[in-house]
Amino acid sequence: MKPHIPGVFGDSTQYFHVPSSKAPELFFYPLCTGHFYCDPQYDLNRINFNSYLFLFILEGSGYVEIDNTTYPVSKGSLAYIDCYKPHRYYTLEGFETIWVHFDGPLARAYFREISSNPASIFRPNDTYEIKKNLDNIYTFFHNSKAQLNEALISNMINNLLTCLLMEKAHLLEGANKANPLKDTLVYIVQHFDEALTVEDLARRIHFSKYYFIRIFKQEVGYTPYEYILMTRVNAATLELKSTDNAIKNVAIHNGFSNESSFCKTFKKLTGMTPMEYRNTNGH
């Protein structure tokens, strides 16, 4: 149907859906969807619209305001908005959007997992999957003359949420790579069974030894050496529980140079010798 909203013009369309009685228990379900061509008069300001919104910018640019924060959006951006809260989105130069309001029994949990704010703006390098699923939802309404298949639409919305979860994971991975200390933690976990020294770890990220120790303790709560020993002992506990390997071999497998130093460190951190731990916990 044609929308009657200031600033929406041309071939713009929108469709509404009344969910079935079982949808709120089973599905992600759409409430409405549309494809809008908007001029600078478009300015939508709501107290609430009980749903979550995917707003994908096909052309042009605009802004999303929520909780006194303004987020710019442009071509290729996806705004993911908690519309249970007061919100506003608008354009100063015009934009073309495809969008869907949705809800469901897990919608709030997904939003909390994906977004740390009432709105998240994603600018993925590859927008194909996001646009494809939004297009599929819109097209289902636009072309369908039969009763809506809620299970199928739910799967499309779930695909969109999965795309955002993966995008968030990608952003976090990039942030971790940009943080030399986080990268060092990953490196220790991957190489704890090798000969690691504090000097080598510091040199690896181009820090002086003493600056590295100070920053590491400040951020992690342990010195680098303490963290290495804790990682090795944690790994050793699993081997003690899961195998009958000799204590000497467990020590070597987990980065200790000899059985004596392993037993001394293990008892200091756990309160038991490796053999006591094995006998007490079983495997």
Low-confidence stretches: none
- Individual helix count: 11
Proportion in β-strands = 15-25%
The whole-angstrom Rg is 27 Å
Major sheet details: 9 strands, antiparallel
Shape: elongated
First-residue to last-residue Cα separation: 66 Å
What is the count of β-strands? 9
Q: What is the H/E order?
A: EHEEEEEEEHEHHHHHHHHH
Residue-averaged pLDDT, rounded?
91
Q: Which structural class do you get from the secondary structure elements?
A: alpha+beta
Share of helical residues: 40-55%
Write a brief caption for the model:
With 283 residues, the chain is of the alpha+beta class.
Protein described:
With 283 residues, the chain is of the alpha+beta class. Helix content is 47%, strand content 23%. The radius of gyration is 27 Å and the shape is elongated. The termini are far apart.
Observed structural traits:
283 residues; 11 helices; nine-stranded antiparallel beta sheet; alpha+beta
Topology:
Blueprint lengths: L7 E9 L6 H4 L2 E10 L4 E4 L5 E15 L2 E6 L3 E5 L4 E4 L4 E9 L3 H8 L4 E4 L5 H16 L6 H29 L1 H12 L6 H7 L4 H12 L3 H19 L4 H7 L5 H12 L3 H8 L2
Antiparallel strand pairs: 1-2, 2-8, 3-7, 4-5, 4-6, 4-7, 4-8, 6-9
Helix pairs in contact: 3-4, 6-7
